[in-house]
Design brief:
The chain has eleven helices and seven strands. The protein is α/β, with parallel strands linked by helices and 279 residues long. A five-stranded mixed beta sheet has the order 5-2-1-6-7. Strand 3 and strand 4 form a beta hairpin. Helix 2 packs across helix 3. The longest helix has 28 residues.
Length: 279
């Protein structure tokens, strides 16, 4: 009690964090061996598995408490907040197999936050990258949890430019503005270009060039005029679905760099799309 060690917990404090961190990098058996070799005593791989699950449940409770404090009580999360001129958010999701009975898969939603790019020789590195992952089923639940964590580290006043990049998932494109009204939302260029090439083949290169020049209306009108020129019903159907989607998110089609306020320095800004790699 004096040491504030919870009941039935083998590990606490820094050793708990070390064990969980090891288990994200190694198998449970390897993590067990490393801890024993380092002099922390023997902890079985099965016990480590249980510890990771316990730690995860604790983190879920913590995140939920911060979220409720922000959205139900109006309490901003405590933390040393940083203010940057432009904040980048990359969002994506990945479906993984589930071990739950009667459930084939589940989606892990991800949002990566960074402050731009550092030039390391010929390479570029994301500046101060942080990654938030959550298994909320709804977009609202995800963005609430994410925003509650983001506000520990960053100011998100109206004068902070927020750029959000993501694929065509509705939980990204339709929901994000509810939580970041001033955000510049961009459909991920890789997904956009890939889908245009799949649907429009040989015409795709010229179509993308039109879009890159900032001619969104011309881009969509040209796509629409080519809808019925597909060689098969399958191709025509694919074109129509894509055009419907692009018209729905017309404001999200331009590259974010063409939509930034004039005072933002564009000299070290590059194309987005890191979420795919992080996933």
């Amino acid at each position: 009690e004096a040491l504030k060690i919870p009941k039935r917990r083998r590990l606490v404090g820094s050793l708990l964090k070390l064990a969980v961190s090891l288990c994200t990098r190694l198998s449970y058996r390897e993590a067990s061996e490393v801890l024993e070799e380092a002099g922390f005593g023997y902890i079985s791989h099965q016990r480590l598995h249980d510890i990771v699950k316990e730690y995860g449940k604790d983190q879920i409770k913590h995140v939920d408490n911060v979220r409720k404090g922000l959205f139900l009580k109006g309490e901003e999360p405590a933390g040393k907040k940083k203010k940057v001129p432009i904040l980048f958010i990359e969002a994506d999701g990945i479906h993984v197999k589930s071990q739950e009975v009667g459930k084939e898969s589940m989606e892990i939603k991800l949002a990566a936050v960074h402050e731009g790019w550092d030039d390391i020789g010929k390479e570029k590195r994301l500046k101060n990258l942080q990654v938030f992952m959550d298994m909320s089923k709804s977009g609202d639940a995800f963005w609430e949890a994410f925003m509650a964590q983001l506000l520990k580290y960053y100011e998100t006043d109206e004068d902070v430019v927020i750029v959000v990049n993501g694929d065509g998932a509705a939980w990204i494109q339709s929901k994000v503005r509810e939580y970041f009204p001033q955000a510049i939302v961009q459909i991920d260029r890789f997904h956009l270009i890939r889908d245009v090439y799949k649907a429009f083949g040989g015409n795709a290169k010229k179509l993308i060039e039109i879009l890159n020049q900032g001619e969104v209306t011309t881009f969509i009108d040209t796509l629409e005029s080519l809808e019925n020129e597909g060689t098969t019903e399958k191709v025509r159907s694919r074109r129509k679905r894509l055009v419907r989607f692009l018209k729905k998110y017309k404001e999200h089609l331009l590259d974010y760099r063409l939509r930034l306020p004039e005072h933002i320095d564009r000299s070290h800004l590059y194309g987005m799309g890191a979420a795919e790699t992080l996933v």
